[in-house]
Structures are given as C-alpha cells and as structure tokens.
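Per reviewer request, we include the raw input and output of the structure prediction for the construct analysed in the revised manuscript.
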Amino acid sequence: MKEFSVNGNIIAYSIVDPARWQNVVFERWNTLSIRSNQPLVLQVARPNLDSNNIRDYEVAGNGGRHFFSYTFDDHILHLSGRNDPGAAMTLTYQRSADGRQIVLDGRDEHGNMLHATLEKVNKTYLLNEGRREPLTLY
C-alpha cells in the first residue's frame, strides 16, 4: 500500500496501529480482505457450506483479516462485511492507466474519511511453481 490516510491524516505503515490498513487483497471471486490491527472475533466452529453456497471458511481463524463481499459499478465499490454483517463501506475507485494502482476514497463503517492508494503486488504461490528437482527423503 503506497499511501493511507484517515480524516486527512496520513498514517505511516504500522503493524500495531489499529486504524492503518496493512494490505488489501482482491480475490478472483467477489471477496476483498483487509489486514489491520483491529480486534476481530474469530469463528472457531467448523466452516459451514449451506445449500445456498454461502461460505464462512474465509473468516474462520483468520486473525487480523477483515473480509467483505463487494460489488462495483461506475467507479463505486460497495463493501459488505462478512466478519461483521453491520460493517459496510462505499468507496470510489480510480485505476491507473497501467493497472498497477487503485486509489480508494470514501468513508468507513464509523464515518471516517478514508484515502488509500494500493499498488499491485504480483504474488507467486509456491504450489503453482512446482519443484525444480526431485526430492529424496532417504
């Protein structure tokens, strides 16, 4: 995350500041997660897959990650809380011409003005990479 501010005050990167977003992940499905140091009630029961295909395994045991469902239209991003169904945000978004940055502006669920400039990070998953050489155990 390149830049983050709350109510016009720029907040430097910190893993302990509860107001500061540490990172944001847009999943391939309509899930967005925000890592922050805000308290979160963990779901410790088994994940549920009901007949309506509503998943809750994303929020089970993920301390520090707040999950949202999202929809978007005409440069407006609507977030609906999965950890806390009462949490909702409406943010405007702008993408850079090269697609490497997204700028978000709006209000959080507490009414604070937010501004975040996200930079794309190309994530490499080791399971997709495979082994370079065979592994010998003995």
